[in-house]
Amino acid sequence: MSEVILVDTSDQVLGTADKLLVHTGSGQLHRAFSVFVFNAQGEMLIQRRASEKYHFGGLWSNTVCSHPAPGEDLCAAAQGRLAYEMGLTLPLRQEFSFQYRAEDSKTNLVEHEIDHVFIGTTDATPKPNVKEVDAWGWIGSKDLARQLEHLPEAFTPWFPIAVSELHDRGLLTKE
């Protein structure tokens, strides 16, 4: 049994609960993180989530996303997940957080999260974990904007929210 951290809308800890259970019904608000890795050319490393994932499988998303374990440091959790899923070890910095709620029509599971966004830079070649990642690639901001506009259904629901915020904060490199 894997547990996640339940939070209020101010990200104050309320307790813990089973990961799968918080994603059922109307979804319980919990803490999450998303990692965005860029290369020296300003391209973003994206991944297509393994189709076997329990929700939003087979969709394109940011470099890594997950939930910190109860008592786990948020940045350490993000770095650990980056190493586990993409085989990358690099410094990360926390930039911002946002709250969202999204339903997966294929599984009827719900994401209701306060998502903490971390940024890192590397030119290293990822070594993805095939249990977690079906495909990956580097994408420039113009190509990403076109993809998000013309194929929004190919992406996880939190990804365009975070990308928009990255853009608004000047953290998404212009080509």
Q: Which helices and strands appear, and what pairs or packs with what?
A:
Layout: E1 3-7, E2 13-18, H1 19-22, E3 30-38, E4 44-49, E5 60-61, E6 64-66, H2 74-86, E7 93-104, E8 109-121, E9 133-139, H3 141-150, H4 158-168
Parallel strand pairs: 3-8
Antiparallel strand pairs: 1-2, 3-4, 3-6, 4-5, 4-9, 7-8
What order do the helices and strands follow?
Answer: EEHEEEEHEEEHH
Strand content: 35-45%
In round numbers, the mean pLDDT is: 94
CATH homolog superfamily? Nucleoside Triphosphate Pyrophosphohydrolase
Report the CATH architecture.
Alpha-Beta Complex
Q: Sheet bearing the most strands, described?
A: 7 strands, mixed
Main CATH class:
Alpha Beta
Distinct helical segment count: 4
Q: Ends: how far apart?
A: 44 Å
How many beta strands in the DSSP annotation? Answer: 9
Total of domains: 1
Gross geometry? globular
Produce a short descriptive summary.
With 175 residues, the protein is an alpha+beta fold. It has helices at residues 19-22, 74-86, 141-150, 158-168; strands at residues 3-7, 13-18, 30-38, 44-49, 60-61, 64-66, 93-104, 109-121, 133-139.
Task: Describe the 3D structure.
With 175 residues, the protein is an alpha+beta fold. It has a single domain (3-168), classed as Nucleoside Triphosphate Pyrophosphohydrolase. The protein is 22% helix and 36% strand. The chain is built from four helices and nine strands, in the order ββαββββαβββαα. The strands form two sheets. Strands 3, 4, 5, 6, 7, 8 and 9 form a seven-stranded mixed sheet that branches. Strands 1-2 form a two-stranded antiparallel sheet. A hairpin with a 5-residue loop joins β3 (30-38) and β4. The chain is globular. The mean pLDDT is 94.
